Amino acid sequence: MQKAFESLDGALSASDHRAANALVQWSLAGYAQVARTPPDYDILSDAPHPLAPFARAISDIRPLARQFGDPAPGVPARFESCLVEINDSYLELAAPLIRERASRAKRAADLEPLLQKLSVFPILPNQPGGEVYTELRARQSQLAADEERARALAKARADQAERDRLTASASRALGVARRYVQAIDAGQIDAAANLLAEDIFLYSPKGNARGRSAVSARMREAASRAAGARLLTPELTSDFRVVSRIYSDRGSGTMTFQVVADRIARIELSQ
Q: Which of 65, 77, 199, 228 is 20 to 30 A away from residue 212, measured at CA?
């Protein structure tokens, strides 16, 4: 501590700077309190960091010291540099325990309280304590990356499960739609109508219809004047819709099926 303030002696002696002298007295008193901190303090315990009060005090003093101009601001800065060295010593002494704690951590969040506690003062990256802190931060980053990969994998699995569910549902719907088209092509209107839900809704540019009876009537009407019309085998689209293309002398269109509980609940005709 004495060495840390030697460079300020000249400036303090050459000026009658009461604020700076007062800050030196405050710093020396603070250092005396630091010297009384337990040498066997366990930095991994839940107990507050013994240097934390001094960190807060320096934070409060620093802007006040600036108001007095040189050399006052240098005093809390030198005091802080001493505490930084002390904190690094804490880290160095506890390095084996810190590394062991890091190796046992399962989640990145498990290490955050310790990292916050250890960084009560700026870390010296090229000192032994700073090196173990850097290792701890790297371990946290590794755990965070592992967690992100695990989340991405879980999402991919969930997405795959959802795709599998949609594919299975769409495949069943496709089978119903194909039986419907096959029955229409064979002129078996009653068989096709049996595949319709009771409350089926038909959407058509030529007018809508609801209910199996109404839609069946529209089917028979269309069959009676559908000479030359061709209804292709239904297929699945990339977004799991069941569609069939229609070609006739009057043009072409698309028939989209919605199937619920193995019955056609909606047919949408579009040009």
A: 228
